[in-house]
Amino acid sequence: MPILVKGAGVAGLTVAHELWSRGHDVAVFDPVGDHRHAASWYAGGMLAPYCERESAEQAVVDLGAGAADWWDSALPGLVRRNGTLVVAPARDTGELRRFAGRTTGFEPLDHAKIAALEPDLAENFRSGLFFSQEAHLDPRSALMQLRTKLAAAGVEFHAAAPDVAAYDRTVDCTGMAARLSGLRGVRGEMLLLRTAELSLARPVRLIHPRFPLYIVPRDDNMFMVGATMIESEQSGPIRARSLMELLNAAYALHPAFGEAELVETGVGIRPAYADNLPRVSRDGATIHINGLYRHGFLLAPAMAVRAAGLIENEEEP
Amino acid sequence: MLDLYGEQIASRLLLGTAQYPSPAVLAEAVKASGTGIVTVSLRRETAGGKSGDGFWSLIQSLGVRVLPNTAGCHTVKEAVLTAHMARDLFRTDWIKLEVIGNHDSLQPDVFALVEAARILTQDGFKVFPYTTDDLVVAERLLEAGCEVLMPWCAPIGSAMGPVNPYALRSLRGHFPAVPLIVDAGIGRPSHACSVMELGFDAVLLNTAVAKAGDPVEMAAAFAEAVNAGHRGYRAQMLEPRDFAVPSTPVIGKAVFS
Asked: How many domains does the structure of chain A reveal?
């Protein structure tokens, strides 16, 4: 039973891998042929269900619990299980207490423990929270490696629209382009900084009154800083104010970021439903995976498993 | 009924639309609060968005009146421009005017506020100015053409509650006929109740509901608190005394015990 996956962002590649690993005959239709058009290209790549609970529903924790294991088994060596560190400037410790009150799975940190985990942050932060069960990955490596692995295994990637009639099922993972009813776009802006002056072993979240702000370390002295949350579907370049706030946060985390190279700024439009939770839905022979919002790498595996189950059992999810 | 620029509004609670966990939770909170007016920030939330954008459709589907605001503006020019954009986008001449003077406390720049209010009133806007609790600034805003005042009771998002009840009482005393809406600084239902007991006409909330553990339950709690405070004010409360007054007179009792 040949299956066509439309879209090669995190939702599409994840479900293509899940179907392929279960022995299905899969092809991927990627009309753009460029990862940079997928919202997931600009993701943080945090597998942080417990931290996300601060502003997300419990379903995000439940659906995201198995994400690190899924990625580890699909792409061995990619996932780093170093946990997440949450810190706040001295004046915002009330906000840190609020964060702690809304989440679970953490250990409160004093100055000495912060110094032991992230020596470079010890000077600036005296209290924090450590979510030891969380993990992260480099989302761009993940997308490229999944594609390479699937192509090497014989999964065809089509740039031109293939004949849909040749496939028994289509899985539509095209995000905003799917134009599903009830779907909206939430603009996210991020940037990449490079500096050799400090190193971090894990994503660090800085408590910010307006949006969840994080810095994720990547290879080659790179740091991803993200991400704004703006209720808009406009995809134009990053706004000056957002750039200023993101840079300011990085600088507040460590002054060495003031001397970092600003390597890239990026903007993605996250597809989201009104409850900010993802959905797998069926419309005839087409299965839709959409609404991954700000949780692409965290929730795509659970959605892929659900979609594959739906195809194999032909039952409602 | 609350009368704002000739419009009769049933609820005395106004709700901001930022920072909710999701639009679905926002919609439920709006319903639970019974509010008739929601504020929407043009700069922060819609970023120059066009009508038809997902969030804007969701706001429209709430079925309540929209009061656009100029949150994030720091100059007269910026605020006036934003107000005009908001009028085109939201198709209303109501504007909640914010001109921020200090980054840290988000305190309004009252001089720029008065000037922007004058310009916008001349341009045909119905201005709802976010101001401090200063009496003289309030007078200047009324002179500039505002028919509603929205003083803070503490800095935006601070959740401190009324820090200067004297100033709020004095505003009420000086402007008995002007609708007064407490705009910022409310953290708990009891804060909302206490400013309504002072005789304020309504309360505008955002963070206290949006960032609550359960925003929908908190919206309902605030609705009850606002209502209780308003009814208490209307029913004319006792003044505190320094001595006890028995609720049953002692003299005239049949049996002394």
From this structure: 2
Q: Which of residues 104-133 of A touch B (CB under 8 A)?
A: none
Q: Are residues A153 and A88 in the same domain?
A: no
A123 and A6 both lie in a single domain: no
- pLDDT per position as a tens digit, A187-215: 999 999 999 999 999 999 998 766 678 99
Is position A317 within any domain?
Answer: no
- Residue A141 belongs to domain with CATH number: 3.40.50.720
Taking 70 as the threshold, does the pLDDT of residue B191 lie above it?
yes
Contact list in B for residue A56 (CB cut-off 8 A) is 21
Q: Say yes or no: A234 and A175 in one domain.
A: no
A231 touches chain B (CB under 8 A): yes
Judge whether A81 is closer than 8 Å to chain B, CB to CB: no
pLDDT in tens, B212-235: 999 999 999 999 999 999 999 999
Mention every residue, 6+ apart, whose C-beta is less than 8 A from residue B249.
none
List, by residue number, the catalytic residues of B: 96
Burial (CB count <10 Å: 0-12, 13-18, 19+), residue B52: exposed
**Does pLDDT of A238 surpass 90?**
yes
CB B157 within 8 A of CB B71: no
In the predicted structure, residue B123 carries a pLDDT above the cut 50: yes
The alpha-carbon gap from A229 to the nearest alpha carbon of chain B, in Å, equals 8
**What CATH number did the domain enclosing A227 receive?**
3.30.9.10
- Considering the domain architecture, whether residues A39 and A174 belong to the same structural domain is answered as yes
Does residue A190 sit in the same domain as residue A65?
no
CB contact under 8 A, A274 and B45: no
For A51-79, write each residue's pLDDT tens digit: 999 889 999 999 999 999 999 999 999 99
Residue of A260, A207, A185 lying closest to A85 (CA atoms)? A207
Q: For B73, name the nearest residue in chain A, comparing CA atoms only.
A: A241
Question: Which residues span the domain enclosing A206?
Answer: 84-132+184-272
Would residue A29 count as lying in a domain? yes
A316 falls within a domain: no
